[in-house]
Amino acid sequence: MEAWLLTPLEERPTQKRVTDLPPGILRRCTICGKEAIDEMDLEKFVKRPRDPHGRMNLCKDCHNANSRVKKKRMWK
Ligand SMILES: [Zn+2]
Q: In sequence order, what E strands does the chain have?
């Protein structure tokens, strides 16, 4: 008896959620929901070159709130 045959596919853990953004939305902050629709909006998002558009799905405001303890007043 092969045990894996009894395991439904749905029960396999999904490690990474696919973030599917609507057309026209380049990036969306997963914390506050802020959206970027153009280059200027992307400036408000945290840089990460290997991500789509070179930005994370995290805006600088939320990033700042999270890392405020480490770097003091870099962002103002
Ligand atoms: Zn945010």
A: 27-28, 35-36, 45-47, 55-59
Cα 32 to chain centroid distance, Å, stands at 11
Instruction: Specify the pTM.
Output: 0.63
Q: DSSP letter for 66, please.
A: H
Domain boundaries, the chain: 2-74
Q: How far is the CA of 34 from the centre of ligand 1 (A)?
A: 6
Distance from residue 65's CA to the centre of ligand 1 (Å): 9
Q: What is the pLDDT of residues 14-72, one digit of tens each?
A: 555 556 788 999 999 999 999 999 999 999 999 999 999 999 999 999 999 987 655 55
